[in-house]
Amino acid sequence: MKFQRLACALVLMWISGQLVAQEPVNSPAPSSAPADTAELGTDVVIFDPWERYNRGMHRFNRGLDKALTKPLAKAYQKITPRPLRTGIRNFFINIFQPISALHLLLQGRPGAAGATLGRFAINLSLGLGGLFDPASDANIPLRREDFGQTMAVWGWQRSRYFELPLLGPSTLRDAFGFAGDYPLSPLQLANTPERYYVTGLNVINLRAGFLDDESLIKDSGDEYRLLRSAFLQKRDFDIHDRTARDQLPDYLQDDGALEEAP
């Protein structure tokens, strides 16, 4: 099993390396790409040559969300007290911190990797398994890294937008990143049937944290364009570890989104 995971990771790294050569890293965006840089308010350039497919997948994802995920999230929010929702959110953030530490090492940042592991250990022990967040009270910063961010640090800076089935907004680079991180997920390493229920709880908990932002989507003239721009702007901030968080709109600053839930 370990050999298979290693082989899978190596294949993904090779494929991503081939695709990097095909992506426009420093060249201007093609004329077919919508010029949304002014909309973003940053230097992020949107590259969406697969827009026809992406819009179709977006409609499918939104239909599934309206029929299933959103009603479940509303029910979950109604019956689950806010402190418990916050604790569940903290737990899921904490169990993924070792993966973040691994990617910080791959990015050449051993100090940040050590601090992230320290944060994980403090919250796991003093935070009752991660339900509480004493590490933040100790001013240990929260870092969430993934393989997509690591590949960006390695050189795949810009990638075409790609909406994934069920998972939603992404890029081609981040889709490969998700595939690379998936076998390392603590929920997958715990090879028991219960992991499916835990994964479902994580999805519903995350969705509940964004229920209050629905009005922003409804008021937009083009929902697809808004979500695409929001995702790419947030992703750019994550990849480059932007420190000026106040430059992001409130609805993109998801670190405290659940705290505002009624």
Verbal overview:
The protein has 262 residues and is mainly α. The protein contains 13 helices and no strands. The protein is globular, with a radius of gyration of 19 Å. The termini are far apart. The relative contact order is 0.14.
Describe what is shown at a glance.
This protein is mostly helical and 262 residues long. 60% of the residues lie in helices and 0% in strands.
Shape: globular
How many domain modules? 1
Largest sheet entry = none
Distance between the termini: 44 Å
Characteristics of this structure?
single chain; 262 residues; mainly alpha; 60% helix; 0% strand; disordered N terminus; disordered C terminus
Q: Which helices and strands occur, and which strands form pairs?
A:
Blueprint: H1 2-22, H2 37-40, H3 51-79, H4 82-95, H5 97-106, H6 110-125, H7 134-137, H8 147-154, H9 172-181, H10 186-189, H11 194-208, H12 214-218, H13 223-239
Helix pairs in contact: 1-9, 3-11, 5-6, 8-9
